[in-house]
Amino acid sequence: MQANTKMQVTTALALGSAVLLLLPGCAGSSGTASGTYYGQTGKGSDPAIITVDGDTVTWGDFGCDTVGEIDMDDSDTSIGTLDKTRTSVAWTQEGRYSNTDPFTESEDGSVITMSGGTYSKAGTDAGDALLAEREDTCAEKADAQEKRETAQAEQAEADAKIKPAFDKALAALLKAGQSGDFSGADSIFANSGITADEFAGYLERNYNGLSADEFFSELQYNPERAELLLEEMKG
């Protein structure tokens, strides 16, 4: 009698455990992660974004073109599906990630770890701090790019003004090279209205880094090669 009672209790406990395993939220992760998360990958600590919508996970670079959002057209963007236990993601659209990667979510859904990277939810202190930091970085990059473009435009305008003098000096130098007579080389720049430094700077900027030393060396010993070099290097 005691054996039968013990068996019934054991069977009831086993059935109870099975039922609990089948109930949502009683096995594996609680599945509370949802929304947008900011963090860094485990592959080089690059800034990245993860969005979770149900069992769909989307990973993307935290770029400056779409700050705070995933660029769905970027080749690195990866889309995957969480397994039933929400402990791994299988990538169905491969980009930076492929095959499967481990996935965990905190009990309150505020933090995700995926393939060695940690991500904090937007709206939390940690998530908002990451977003603000990235926004500052992107703003600095945009400002630096604007300054570079302004400087390039100003330099292009300055180069346009000295181009006639450069062309005049260049023609005179090529003529001297062909004749092999460099006796009047010192006066070429003065007669052309350009200094040697201005000539060298224009040459380097507009002939893909060609230095004056390299050009003059070719001009002196191989003037035909000097002319070919100008054609090859002209921007």
What are the defining features of this structure?
signal, 8 strands, disordered N terminus, DUF4476 domain-containing protein, coiled coil, Lipocalin, eight-stranded antiparallel barrel, alpha+beta, elongated, 235 residues
Q: What is the top-level CATH class of the largest domain?
A: Mainly Beta
Indicate the overall shape.
Answer: elongated
Estimate what percentage of residues fall within beta strands. 15-25%
N-to-C series of helices and strands: HEEEEEEEEHHHHH
Give the low-confidence spans.
1-29
Rounded mean pLDDT is 86
Cα gyration radius (Å): 34 Å
CATH fold-level assignment of the largest domain: Lipocalin
Spatial separation of the terminal alpha carbons: 99 Å
Signal peptide: 1-29
Protein name: DUF4476 domain-containing protein
Keywords: Coiled coil, Signal
Coiled coil: 134-161
What does this structure look like?
This protein has 235 residues and is of the alpha+beta class. It has two domains: 35-122, Lipocalin; 149-233, no CATH class. The chain is built from six helices and eight strands, in the order H-E-E-E-E-E-E-E-E-H-H-H-H-H. It has helices spanning 2-22, 125-179, 185-192, 196-206, 212-221, 223-233; strands at residues 35-40, 47-53, 56-61, 78-82, 88-93, 100-105, 111-114, 117-121. It has an eight-stranded antiparallel beta barrel. Helix 2 (125-179) packs across helix 3 (185-192) and helix 5 runs antiparallel to helix 6 (223-233). It is elongated and about 85 Å long.
Summarize the structure.
49% of the residues lie in helices and 19% in strands.
